[in-house]
């Protein structure tokens, strides 16, 4: 497992700013320790990045994306590959895209289709919102299962898509 230490920067977290070193193992933050402490000095790494005089910030989350989304007879310009590469260059490390249920099909089928589009093509982490295109007894029952799998928001258009009216359902 590769290890990286980011040394000397001002680390910005959700609640604090601190002069600390960051230990990364296998692509994930494993530890933070104040500069010059025994803990920070004991770390060994394959790579050390000198962040002296720089901010060390977490990546951003883009919670509303449309990769490969069909709309009005066309598709969004970005694929999961091109869109997530561009996001990574801009400092975004996670997107939450909209998966779409097709009319007459199960909600699960729509989610699986979006996983298939994204699988192996994303440069960053991703998750999905679910658009319900065919709200009925069966699709409403499927929502609980998808929530247990991590889908936390659902969208259903209450007017025609051309009107752009929508409501978000939070289970």
Provide a descriptive summary of the structure in words.
This protein is an alpha/beta fold and 171 residues long. The radius of gyration is 21 Å and the shape is elongated. The protein has helices at 38-42, 80-89, 107-118, 137-148, and strands spanning 3-12, 17-25, 28-34, 47-50, 55-56, 60-65, 70-71, 74-75, 92-100, 125-132, 154-157, 166-169. Helix content is 23%, strand content 39%. The protein is built from four helices and twelve strands; from the N terminus they run βββαβββββαβαβαββ. The chain starts with a strand and ends with a strand.
Short description:
Helices cover about 25% and strands about 40% of the residues. The protein has about 170 residues and is an alpha/beta fold.
